[in-house]
Amino acid sequence: MTQSEVAESQHPRERVLSAVYPLFAHRGVRDVGIDEIIRTAGVAKATFYRHFASKEALVLAFLQRRHEVFGINWLLGEVARRATTPEGRLLAIFDVFAEWFAREDYEACSFIRVMFELGASDPAGQASIGYLHEIRNQIVLLAKDAGLDDVDGFAWSWRILMAGSIVTAAEGDLGAASRARRLAAALIAQHRPATATQAFHCPASPGHHEGTGQFRRENR
Amino acid sequence: MTQSEVAESQHPRERVLSAVYPLFAHRGVRDVGIDEIIRTAGVAKATFYRHFASKEALVLAFLQRRHEVFGINWLLGEVARRATTPEGRLLAIFDVFAEWFAREDYEACSFIRVMFELGASDPAGQASIGYLHEIRNQIVLLAKDAGLDDVDGFAWSWRILMAGSIVTAAEGDLGAASRARRLAAALIAQHRPATATQAFHCPASPGHHEGTGQFRRENR
DNA sequence: CGGGCAAGACCGACCGGTCTCGCTCGTGGC
DNA sequence: GCCACGAGCGAGACCGGTCGGTCTTGCCCG
């Protein structure tokens, strides 16, 4: 193997995965057909199906790739470069988001998009939800590091801010990240134990249950 | 006309719209084909195309219908039934959301789903973003009623909470609405003018711009 | 020589969209 | 009051294109 050419002389499976990544990430899953995939990857159709049992298998592999290169672990690394304290690392998530949202080819979160595109009952939708839960679990660990109260409820609320800013950024809000950061700071204050908890006014909601870490909805 | 039968003896366009509504709302737009639509509506294909120029035109009509029967005006009505004060009406949004999320056939926000499914450059995606902006504009008016500061930034932040809870509810958080409500209360406190503004600690972010009402991203 | 490959023909199913049939029913001329 | 007409309709054949997926061919390289 000459190793020259471009970098295309890799394993066909790898060529397919790296070719399909931007297509799926930017345009979603259903809009990209097999023919376009193999054309972009420069791979024969038979070769594609030697390495992937079906398009669904490719989608699952894409989601895993997304999780590996642009998921929570990548985010935790970025966050660690920017802050040293546990609370600072939490808030730094939205500084990373600010750079992400500012990209002119901002493509939002593939897990959320696939969950909506294919539905929660589809295997790829289930996998997406699984990765989103993995993100939330890491938030739980960060919250524990920060010594916060009710880390599970905190992580769910944190996910609201992450998902909400991702969506409103796609809607067109250029300041979504900084807005979410302000809300995140308030959320941290709400979950700081004992000393100087919430000093702000929280109007009561009649018949308003607490809503702790409860979970699970049957797939539609 | 006997007027009996069922209630199906309406105008074909209306039959198509009411038949397609649950299909699009629950399964998205691309998953539902023309053949299934006309079969469900009990309408001939030629009749369908007499009333809709294309499937895209049907999607646009669906979005408009969604906006009319389940959009911001419906939400404002529900909210008015539950609260009298401006701040109470704002917070009541998440009480309505709590009931919405609890439905076993919860289908999330069609505007967000279509925006992600078709992309921001697609006409239907553009229309969806337009309806989302209309929602935000009504939040601005509610915020003005409540006498809050920076109503535009407030409305964007409020949309973060709405969109975020919608997404995390789809992920499986049964308490998304009450969590968002708590955050919303903190957001209102942040935007209450002068008297007793934020008493909580908001850690500084190095090089962190303010992020006011700026807006607009070019369609990808 | 043989396994993995690129190229691409081929498959049935379905896509969005057009067009041809009859049938029905409301309407206007008489 | 009657009837012929025509618009609108349901049913469905049909169109080219594309979908995901299979299979054949011939090449290249170990």
Topology diagram in text:
2 copies of one chain form a homodimer.
Chain A: H1 12-27, H2 34-41, H3 45-51, H4 55-70, H5 72-82, H6 86-102, H7 110-118, H8 123-145, H9 151-171, H10 176-191
Helix pairs in contact in A: 1-2, 1-4, 4-5, 4-8, 5-6, 6-8, 6-10, 7-8, 8-9, 9-10
Chain B binds a DNA duplex (30 and 30 nucleotides) through residues 1, 12, 33-35, 38, 42-47, 49-50, 54-55.
Question: What would your notes on this structure say?
Answer:
Chains A, B: It holds the Pfam family TetR_N. The structure is a homodimer of 220-residue chains. Chain A folds into two domains: 12-55, Homeodomain-like (Arc Repressor Mutant, subunit A, Orthogonal Bundle), CATH 1.10.10; 71-191, Tetracycline Repressor, domain 2. Chain A has ten helices and no strands. Chain A has helices spanning 12-27, 34-41, 45-51, 55-70, 72-82, 86-102, 110-118, 123-145, 151-171, 176-191. The longest helix of chain A is centred in the middle third of the chain and has 23 residues, at 123-145. The first copy, chain A, starts with 11 loop residues before the first helix and ends in a 29-residue tail after the last helix. Chains A and B meet through helix 6, helix 7, helix 8, helix 9 and helix 10 of A and helix 6, helix 7, helix 8, helix 9 and helix 10 of B. Chain B binds a DNA duplex (30 and 30 nucleotides) through helix 2 and helix 3.
